[in-house]
Amino acid sequence: MNAQQTEVKCDGCGTVFEAIPYAARKGELHATYLQCPVCYQVFPGLITDRPLRKLMRDSSPAGFRAHKQHQAARLKKLHGESLKQMDGWTEERR
Ligand SMILES: [Zn+2]
Q1: Any idea what DSSP says for residue 42?
Q2: Which of 20, 51, 56, 74 could serve as a FRET partner for 3 with CA atoms 20 to 30 Å apart?
Q3: Ranges of each domain in the chain
């Protein structure tokens, strides 16, 4: 039986690779990202800061969930570009 795998296609070089998320942090920011094994392009995933992680730990009715997604989108917009350059980000050991 095959394990469930998610594959993504790299925007940069077109390589299809298995979507294994990596983790990185920059100060209070935590991020998950995917990286192309061929051209090393970084694709930012979820980026969280301390207030957002607290929000995510709280049990979430629908209203909270919308707020959480909004905050995550805002952080990704703010920090996604710097994550692509790994500027100031430190990869975490898995
Ligand atoms: Zn690539």
Answers
A1: E
A2: 56
A3: 7-87
Q: Give the residues across from 33 on adjacent strands.
A: 22, 44
Amino acid present at 89: W
Report CA(90)–ligand 1 centroid distance (Å). 21
- Average pLDDT, stretch 60-83? 90
What is the distance in A from the centroid of ligand 1 to the CA of 55?
34
Can you tell me the mean pLDDT for 8-35? 96
Distance 65 CA to ligand 1 centre (A): 33
C-alpha 52 – ligand 1 centre gap (Å): 30
User: Average per-residue pLDDT in the chain?
Assistant: 90
Out of 22-31, 39-48, 49-58, least confident range: 49-58
Query: Distance from the CA of 12 to the center of ligand 1, in angstroms?
Result: 5
**Tell me, what amino acid is at 84?**
K
Give the number of C-alpha atoms closer than 13 A to the C-alpha of residue 30, restricted to the C-beta side: 11
